[in-house]
Amino acid sequence: xxxxxxxDNPLIERYASREMCEHxxxxxKFSTWRRLWVALAEAEHELGLPxxxxxxxxxxxxxxxxxxxxxxxxxxxxxxxxxxxxxTYGDVCPNARGIIHLGATSCFVTDNGDCILYRDxxxxxxxRLFVVIDRLAKFAHEYRALPCLGLTHLQPxxxxxxxxxxxxxxxxxxxxxxxxxxRLANFKTLGNKGTTGTQASFLKLFDGDxxxxxxxxxRVCEKIGFAQPFAVTGQTYPxxxxxxxxxxxxxxAQSAHKFATDMRILANKKELEEPFEKNQIGSSAMxxxxxxxxxxxxxxxxxxxxxxxxxxxxxIATQWMERTLDDSANRRLTIPQAFLAIDAIxxxxxxxxxxxxxxxxVIEKNLAAELPFMATENILMTAVEAGGDRQELHEHIRVxxxxxxxxxxxxxxxxxLLQRLKSDEAFxxxxxxxxxxxxxxxxxxxxxxxxxxxxxxxxxxARYPNIAVKQSELRV
Length: 476
Description:
The chain is mainly alpha-helical. The chain has helices spanning 10-15, 18-23, 26-46, 53-61, 68-78, 81-92, 106-142, 162-185, 200-205, 210-223, 240-268, 293-308, 310-317, 328-353, 360-385, 390-409, 417-422, 432-435, 445-463; strands at residues 147-152, 155-161, 272-273, 357-358.
């Protein structure tokens, strides 16, 4: 079929939610432009410019009925997207045609429109992020006291618990949420700044009345949902905002990548698994495979988002004087796609964290294989308390540990260190089984989980009592 010949963006076709795809689609973008023209006309009318209520009503009646073919024809002719839509809007609003875009430059709709879209997209990301945090915290609480082998340098280390490890993932995301909340709380928009940011065109409209120019901007910002505009700008809003947004999205991607990588390693150890559906195929050749494809996809998409972080940084560094246009094509690509990818990442993460499969017996077995070595210090101290010589006991443990390690590494056998110690008369007075109870080695991990949820997660839950993000379907 002819329509299948062209490349389709996988973020739209396979990964992101319909909600986020439509958020950055043409209908919402250009309807937002029209709402901005309505807000401008209303504010100008209120402040005494020759804009009538009838013209405003006509504009309002045609905010959403956009003829995209007409707009495309105009753009082909005019080579200017904003003017193409001014003319398209004017065609269906003939009485208001003459006051559409009055006093404004193109960035009035492009930049204010983008600020609206980015702010609203961040709110969607915030909601999805909250749900993942909430679900991970529930998982952490459920498994707060289940001992497992801790790993540092990806080597066996002091035991922790499954729940405590999950709080590390959760805290990363909670920190990301805090950054996102700050950005939303301080989100500004361009306002009415004119071609070089001086508001000269609006000052002319109001016959040199500076206060009315300022009041016009205040009213427009209020009508489109912003407390205030940027204090000063060139023609565009400061492209620093784009870098700040991509920084936030990249941080979320970093946290997601760490979570998904840990899950993949734990799946390899057969301790935790992501959900695996009844009819899911792990490999086209190896029918037994249970590949962690969801977490692999999270890592793949996360790398993509992290790679996009550099583009807005380079853009802000090269915005000469009051503006250049080499930001435009780059921003059309990087910012929406970063949002789409983060949306997909959080959808997958929600699916995974709500359905993590835990294998306590394997966790216990893996811990038991390493715990004897970790328990030797406790065994040593108990033997000393029972009257033994510390230096002699230390040498006994060293010899047995080397022999047990060789059995594992050279002979491929199981760890028999405990059996060796139990057979050694030097440790006859020590209840070795009691000394290696996993609960003795997890410190305050269960209590830390409970404190973390109380001090960090519960306040987040209190801020968002009504957020209930429905699980979006994984389309592949």
